[in-house]
C-alpha cells in the first residue's frame, strides 16, 4: 500500500470548504473568520497534516533545509558537531540532511551534487581526507550557494569558517609529554595537505623547539585517510617501531588515528604508559574509561556545530550579498590522564 500524504484538498472535502478557504485559514489570513480558522486548524492537527515542503519551496524559492557533509557520523567528534548543528537548525525551522564522505573525494563530489540537486538552502561541510581539488565547491559557491566550512576548511573559498585552535592543542599535548620526561615523541598524523594536519604539526614542532628538542622527520608518519584504514596506521607504526631509536611517546592527531593506534599497541603487547606514552585527539567519552585512562586533546565539537550553523543561516537569510567573512577559532582543551604520565 502506497503512503499518500494528507493534502489541503482532503481537508477541504472533509469540512465542506473550498481549498482556497482552507489554505487561507492555515496561513491565518485576516480574510477568514476566527471560527473557520479554528475548525480548519484543529482538523488539520487531528489528521497529522503537514505542509508539502516541495510546494512550499516552489512558492518561497526556499526549501528550508541545509546539507551537512562529514567524513563519518560514527566518529564522536562529528556526531557532537551534528548535535550542535541540529540544536540551531530545527529551532529556526530548518531541516538537516546529512551525508558521509567516508574520507572519499569521489563520494564527497557525489554527496555535494545530490544535495545541490535537492535545492538545499545552504551547505555545511568538513572536506574529506582525499579532497585536494575544490572545483565542485567553488562552482556551487560561485553560483550563489551559501557554504560554511568547519574543522577541515578550504582557504581558497571566501566564506565563513569555524575551526579549533589545532596548533595550541598539539602544542599543549607535546609540551605535556616533554615535561613528563619523554624525548622521542612521534606524531601520527593525517594527510600532509590537510589544514588540520598542517596546524597540528605546527604546534608539535613549536613545542619541540621551545623545549630545545630537535625535530626529527622520521618520527612523523602520515596516514592519508586519517585513520579510517587500519592498515595505514599499522604500516606507519611498524615503521616507527622498526627504527633503531624507538619513540617513547606518541601524539595521535585525530580520533581514528588514536583508536587504531590503541588497537595496534594492544595487538603487539606494547603497554601504555610503561612501554610508550600516548596522547590522542579525541572527543569520545570512553577515553576516561580505558585502562589506563587516555590523555586527550578535546575539541569543542558541539559549539563548532552551533556557530557554523548560525553563520550559515545568516548567509541564507541575508537581504544583501555578504562580503565580510569570519574565521572563528575555538580553543581546544588538554585532559591529562594516566596514559601520558611516566610511572615512578
Descriptive notes:
It holds the Pfam family LacI. This is Transcriptional regulator, LacI family. Keywords: DNA-binding, Transcription, Transcription regulation. It comes from Filimonas lacunae. InterPro entries: Cro/C1-type_HTH, HTH_LacI, LacI/GalR-like_sensor, Lambda_DNA-bd_dom_sf, Peripla_BP_I. By secondary structure, the protein is α/β, with parallel strands linked by helices. It folds into three domains: 8-51, no CATH class; 63-163 and 301-330, Response regulator (Rossmann fold, 3-Layer(aba) Sandwich); 166-299 and 333-340, Response regulator (Rossmann fold, 3-Layer(aba) Sandwich). 42% of the residues lie in helices and 15% in strands. A six-stranded parallel beta sheet has the order 2-1-3-4-5-11, with helices on both faces. Strands 7-6-8-9-10-12 form a six-stranded mixed beta sheet, with helices on both faces. Helix 5 (76-89) packs across helix 12 and helix 10 (230-241) crosses helix 11. It is elongated, with a radius of gyration of 25 Å. The protein starts with 7 loop residues before the first helix and ends in a 9-residue tail after the last strand.
